[in-house]
Amino acid sequence: MKQMEEKILAEGKVLPGGILKVGSFLNQRIDTVFLKDMAREIAALFVDSGVNKVLTVESSGIAIAAAVGMEMGVPMVFAKKHKSSNVDGTVYSAPVHSFTHNSDYNMVVSTDYLCRDDRVLLVDDFLANGQALHGLIALAEQAGATVVGASAAIEKGFQGGGDSIRAMGIRVESLAIIESMDDTGITFRR
Amino acid sequence: MKQMEEKILAEGKVLPGGILKVGSFLNQRIDTVFLKDMAREIAALFVDSGVNKVLTVESSGIAIAAAVGMEMGVPMVFAKKHKSSNVDGTVYSAPVHSFTHNSDYNMVVSTDYLCRDDRVLLVDDFLANGQALHGLIALAEQAGATVVGASAAIEKGFQGGGDSIRAMGIRVESLAIIESMDDTGITFRR
After folding, report:
1. Which of A6, A65, A145, B190 sees the fewest Cβ atoms within 10 Å?
2. How do the pLDDT tens digits run along chain B, 190 residues long?
């Protein structure tokens, strides 16, 4: 999505440690006009996939996942992050390591909200190491649901998460894939 | 909003301890068709207020705030919840007590994303004791912004938070106000 690449170049800031700050339009402050454009693009990419649910994880994935759900006219479900696992059978749960915060958490969703008949599109703002998406895939597997694909607003291609999911045979569509970035500039995958 | 009252009666579950569970359409699982209806209603209520920013707090407020922002064509900003306060001057910060989780946190937003010229509409999924909205009002005050109003999808009128904010002279519009509820039924404010 050309517009996403332009937005990253215009407003993104590369910080030390491989961090791309896009708080001015994608998280913390959300450009809602652009949000709708992103959602429309993602919905168009998966329009023929029979998606009946959008799945994300709190909290920065919620806005874009809700927008995609609205665009596709299907419900959106978000997993919660818990410190403890819950094994009472009322939730699906997957352990996730966050490289961003260097901490572990359990990704949890009620068994009421994911089921065998679901054809799930995973949506998130960022795709870096892919830990969050692997957690969501695990939740979908526990529910017996089908993952029809995954989409991130921004993929950091050089961190390998997106390609690890593509290697599982899952279609991954990111609106922009950053191949490399440092304080001299940002290069996108072609 | 008649539709909201019907939705609560049809899908809401009253749990012990004054908890109303609406995870099937408002949080965890979000009915995105209904989300757009809610957003349209809130946008219409404040259409003449000169709103130029929607403000909420992570994470369950994000979906409805993003939808309202999209409907009004203005940016949405969400405050983050931190365990520690940050006093380095790059954020606005307010201490908040959560009765739901019986814990304290700091509500934090970057000084980049709230400013003196802002005319802010506060949006959240639930309004109960009003602690979250009071925190957001404190953040807006620190920025010198104007709070033009607040809107919640569901207000628990019997917990008093909404009325405490109305008493400050702030316009509060909730899509449904629950006057009382127990396992025998739910009564709405007229």
Report:
1. B190
2. 999 999 999 999 998 888 899 988 998 899 999 999 999 999 999 999 999 999 999 999 999 999 999 999 999 999 999 877 666 679 999 999 988 778 899 999 999 999 999 999 999 999 999 999 999 999 999 999 999 999 999 999 999 999 999 999 999 999 999 999 998 899 999 8
Residue of B27, B30, B34, B54 to mutate for A, most A C-beta atoms under 10 A: B30
Taking alpha carbons only, the member of B177, B179, B184, B189 closest to residue B4 is B177
Between the two ends of chain A, the Cα-to-Cα distance in Å is: 11
**Cβ within 8 Å of residue B146, ≥6 positions away:** B118, B119, B120, B140
| Threshold 0.90, pTM exceeds | yes
Question: Token pair 């910080």 is at which residue?
Answer: A15
Which member of A30, A77, A80 has the closest CB to residue B66? A30
Nearest to A63 among B36, B62, B110 (CB): B62
Among the partner residues A24, A36, A75, nearest to B32 by beta-carbon distance: A75
Respond yes or no on whether ipTM tops 0.90: yes
* A67 contact residues in B (CB cutoff 8 A): 66-67, 70
